[in-house]
Structures are given as structure tokens and as C-alpha cells.
Amino acid sequence: MIKRILFFSICIALLSSLIGFIHSFGKKDVEKIFVGVVMPGGVNEVGFNGTHYQGIKQASDELGLGIILKENVREYSGECEKSVRELIAAGVKIIVLASFYYTEEIKQLIENNPGVHFYSLSKQLRISNCKSYFARVYQARYLSGIVAGLQTATNNIGYVAAMNNAEVNRGINAFTLGVKRVNPEAKVHVAWTGSWDDAEKERRNVEKLYASTNADVIAYHQNQMNVIDAADSIGIYSIGYNDVQVKDSSRVLTTAVTNWEIVYKELLQDYLQQKNMDEIDYWLGIEVDAVGLGFYSRDVSDSMKVAVQNAIKEMKNGRDVFYGKIFDNKGVKRSEENEVIGDEFLRYGMDWFVEGVVFLE
């Protein structure tokens, strides 16, 4: 009897081991994929860096991906190459370069690592393992320009801008076209800082714009909300960029935002599924709600909101911002009545400014 029980026990143990072996043989050991993220500021910043990181974090969490983060990597500091080399050494195969000029710094490094997939905010580098991605933020800026154009009492609007490149320029132009759509008499006065993040220059430019042009609404293209603080201290209106934190001020009329989760989810899903691998350009817009206005202050009237909604309907029905007869600020016609300025030019060739843009001396 004891022998029989022992025999059956051994058989059960062997059968269990066999089942376990078969199960483990048929099951793939899936190794977690990590996304390397290099960004110019900190994840806790209010503005571009914080919202950008939250977007990629949400998309990565949803797709079961990990993140290896390199933050506060300033452009042209030498830290970008160092950070990317560390990511590659750690075995990371997908690296996000979340600042405009990173690719200029590490072009050779990207070319020398064809097995690593890079995603860059800039479209300046065009090789097979480096894809560009961005959102059509200019569409949101156009909408915010409508708000500014309807709000101004002086017909003078200020714009604090980081640097003269295609990305910043098309934002200025789109914003101005939105202003002129509802207020043909208004002008947009631009003051450059030469930096994505320089609190002192941004503050000084707000003060100069107010003092020299009588601007009563100020917009900006900078990474943080220094312009909002400066405008608020003077007592004039502002237009935000990215999600911003406002206390109890109605003077921040609205903010142009990007839903980075939508952008990142699309490109990361494509990478995981090895889908659209020949695609070199991700540029998502209002058609998938990747951009829009974040909120309205209590000083934005219902009629102003209706004007914005009408523009949104037009864009969702296929009429983009840079459509129709457009003149630059030197009087040269840049687009005909039924013409649309194409994406290629918007990404590379936007080196002029529309009628209504004036530069602060």
C-alpha cells in the first residue's frame, strides 16, 4: 500500500513538472522595453518640460513601457551627447530628443547607431533611424490669436519669442493670422530673447513691449510662464503656452496647449507594432485633438468663444491656418486666394513673417 501511494506521488510530481516545463516552453519571456527621454528642463517645471514629460509618461504607462530620463540637458552644453551615449550603453533602443537643436549636436552619433530609433522635435536631420515628431501647435496659437484680437483695446499685442527658427516663426505667424481674422487693425509686436528659458530677458521684454507699444495683451513662445508673471505684475492680459498654473487671475485669457499623450502614444505604438516604419514625420493636430486651448478665463466672453469654435470647425473640416491670400510684412504675396502653404514649407521654410508682425527695436 505504501509503495502504491509512493508510486502515485512520484507520478503526480513528474506530471506537474512536465506541465510546468511545457507551459514555460510555450511562454515567451517578454523583456520590458525602455524609452530614453532627453529633455532640456525638469519634469516638475510648469510649462513645456513638465507637460511634455507627463504626456510621454502617460503614453508609456498605458503601453507598458519604462522610461529612463535625462533631464535638465541644456542645448549645446555637451550634455546631450553624454546622455545619449549613456542611454545606448544601457541598451535603450528608442530615444526621444525633446528639444529643437539636439540633433545638430549629435548628428554623427545618430548616424553611427542605426539600430537605435531616435525621435526628434526637430525635422532638421533626415535619416532612416531619426524620425521627427511634433504637434501642430500653430493651430492652437491661431485660436489664441482670435482671443487676443478680440480682447485688445489698444490694437497692440506683444509677443515674447525665443529664437528665429521655423517652429517659432510659424507660431508667430499663425497667432497673427488669428488676430487679423477678427481685428484687421491690430498689430503683433515681437521681442526676441534668444533663449528658450531666460526669466530676466522675458520679464524685460514684457516691460519694453508695454512701455513702447502700449500692448495690453502679451503672448509668448518660451518654456516657462515667466511672461505671464511679468504681465500680471503690470496688470495686462496674457496668453499662455502649454498648461499653466494660475491662481485667481482672470488676466490669463487662455493658453495654447498640446496633448502630448496623443502624440507619443501614436509614435510609440507604431514602434512596438513595427508599423509605419518608413514614416519620418509625425505631425498631429486639431483633427485628433492633439492641440487646442486649455481653458478660458472669466474675462473671455461667450461671443469670443463662439468665434474660436467657428475656427475650430473650419480646421476640422480641412481648412488649415495657412490657407488663402497671405501677404508678408514687407508686402510680398506668399499665398494665393485658393492656395494652401504645404507642410514641407511650414516645417523648413518659414523664414518670413505675415502682415501685421512688427519687431521691437
Number of strands: 15
CATH topology of the largest domain: Rossmann fold
- Output the CATH class name of the largest domain: Alpha Beta
Q: Compute the number of helices.
A: 12
CATH architecture of the largest domain: 3-Layer(aba) Sandwich
Structural class: alpha/beta
Poorly predicted regions are 1-30
Query: Any idea what the CATH superfamily of the largest domain is called?
Result: Response regulator
The helical percent reads 40-55%
Distance between the termini: 104 Å
Total of domains? 2
Q: How would the global form be characterised?
A: globular
What pattern of helices and strands is seen along the backbone?
HEHEHEHHEEHEHEHEHEEHEEHEEHE
Model description:
By secondary structure, the chain is α/β, with parallel strands linked by helices. The chain has 2 domains: 102 residues, Rossmann fold (3-Layer(aba) Sandwich), CATH 3.40.50; 189 residues, Rossmann fold (3-Layer(aba) Sandwich). It contains 12 helices and 15 strands. The strands form 3 sheets. It has a 7-stranded mixed β-sheet, sandwiched between helices. Helix 6 runs antiparallel to helix 11. It is globular and about 60 Å long. The chain starts with a helix and ends with a strand.
Offer a quick outline of the entry.
The protein has twelve helices and 15 strands. The chain is an alpha/beta fold and 361 residues long. Helix 2 links the parallel strand 1 and strand 2 (66-70).
